[in-house]
Amino acid sequence: MTRVQANLILLLAAAIWGGGFVAQSTAMQNIGPFWFVGLRFGIAALAVLPFAFMEARKMKSLPTGKELSGFGLVGLALLGGAITQQIGLVTTTVTNSGFLTGLYVIFVPVIAVVVYRRFPHWIVWPGALMMLGGIFLLSGGTFSKLNGGDIFSIICAFFWAIQITLAGRFVTTSNRPLALSCVQFAVCSILCCLMATVMEPFSLNAISNAWREILYVGLVSSGLAFVLQVIGQRYTTAPQAAIFLSSEALFAAMFAAAFLGETLSGIGYIGCALIFVTILLVELVPEFTRQRSAVYTQ
User: Fold this and answer.
1) Are the C-beta atoms of 234 and 177 separated by less than 8 Å?
2) pLDDT of 25 strictly over 70
3) How far apart are CA 10 and CA 244, in angstroms?
4) What is the pTM (predicted TM-score) of this model?
5) I need a surface site. Which of 4, 117, 221, 234 has the fewest CB within 10 A?
6) What span, in angstroms and rounded, lies between the C-alpha atoms of 194 and 203?
């Protein structure tokens, strides 16, 4: 897979996640965030499990203990990001959540530099700032006051940054995207369901009322989109992946306007344009630089 194809896959994952924000928000009318996240990723783990076994059969070996430990760490980061995002959606809007979650576009390259001493292509830094600016404009260009949901969304962005960084590292070293996806889903689901038994009452009626959202988010936003993320990250860098994945805020705002009646201001459309310009720059500049270097070395 080429880097261009990988980044397009990440963009598709971002679009799916953007639509998932709507389901995540409406589900909170019927079910608590811990049970929702636990059931969501339980469905995702079961959906991916057969494909993980097919992957192991193709590679003629099961994941090693070291690989499973790494996958488990990704699952812990996923748990932190998923539950704080879901708690935040109880009291904040889909558009605000999309913007604040998008802060991971800044956190990822910083983590890559601090932890791995790995410096991204120079376009990533202005691209990250442009993406952040575009997401901010998309939210209307103002936050009069951060509420509790907004604070949880900011915390969520930090966990997503860790998840993106770790997923990129372990999928590269193991070459097992489906096993990684299945393990991270299972770890997140089991731990979240255990916490739910303490934090929230169990109600079959609540699950019945939210089953459409649980099923959609479990199979599509989790089972499909996270697998696409892991596959795409095999062929691109974590900072570039963060740029493309953060466009989920654009799709979240679009779906929120279509299904929840949240409206975009004129400045929001400017933010949409800035996001797409940033995506093009991050995609084209490294490719153009690589082609020029190849010409000069011939």
Assistant:
1) yes
2) yes
3) 6
4) 0.84
5) 117
6) 15
